[in-house]
Amino acid sequence: MGKKYVHFLVFILFAYLSWNAYDNPYTESYIDALETVPVTSNQQEQELMNKIKEIGAQYEEEPKDAVIDKVWKKIPGYNGLKLDVEESYNQMKEKGKFDKNLLSFREVEPEISLNELPPAPIYRGNPNKNMVSLMINVSWGREHIPAMLQALKNQKVKATFFIEGKWAQEHEEDVKLILEEGQEIGNHAYNHPDLRTKSISEIRQQLEQTNEILESITGEVPTLFAPPSGAFTQDVVEVASSLGMETILWTADTIDWKKPTEHVMIKRVMDKIDNGTLILMHPTPVMANGLEELILKIKEKEYRIGTVTNTLSEKR
């Protein structure tokens, strides 16, 4: 009887320890064990799948259609996010536990895209997209371009240079340098006229001539047009559209041509910066000296900086 009694006590003790280590849902050891157990049963698979659907749905976003706003005119759309349940499950299956960092999503395009809207000027990107652009209008200030390119290179930033046709003719090597640095190039008309005073045929000549010059240098036809001094009419916008170009204005202006201090220039921009902001500047002394600091300030606010094309893109 003594041996049987001892064996019985050992069995009870072993059963208790086993239950305490693995079956008690309130012990840390049990939770740790679950986190490392591979998915082997249908029940575990279903539980993981349910959690993926439940948590992942919280991160889904509906796409935003491109619209023509009363104030901001043409605003690009923005892709939504849709949970990819199967891909998320496959990425977590080996780990055997839920990990929100392994959730997988696919982008969903909006029903209405920018190119489906009628011709209208663009002042900003989509307010849901955490990206801004530097747009550099060039018709003078050649001596400051190398310093600005160096600042962009130092910070690994791409900007959009809107170049006047006449200036491009006279400074072909500078245009090539801008292109070689991976910067985007747009059309800034031929000789900086006030296009509001021009006929449709004159407007077309200004834009076509510049496109031809830039294409001969870069091998590419611009898809973006920035009217000189921001002066435009609906005719200007429609001619640009007929040539395959969007008319680009700006959200924030450095007003660098008035020779502000670097501090004033930077504050002027940072007071207006937001998602989708297009920042206007020129090759001026204040930008040559202050561009890198401006970029750093923008990065501190955790905005991504990209070309105008990238900022206007629906891609996230």
Please outline what is shown here.
The protein has 316 residues and is α/β, with parallel strands linked by helices.
Q: What this model shows, in words?
A:
The chain has helices at residues 2-23, 28-36, 42-56, 85-93, 145-154, 165-170, 172-180, 200-218, 234-242, 262-270, 285-300, 308-312, and strands at 67-69, 73-75, 80-83, 105-108, 131-138, 160-163, 184-187, 224-225, 246-247, 252-253, 278-281, 304-305. With 316 residues, it is of the alpha/beta class. The strands form 4 sheets. Strands 5, 6, 7, 10, 11 and 12 form a 6-stranded parallel β-sheet that branches. It has a two-stranded antiparallel sheet with strand order 1-2. The N and C termini lie far apart (76 Å). The relative contact order is 0.14. The model is unreliable at 8-37 (pLDDT under 50).
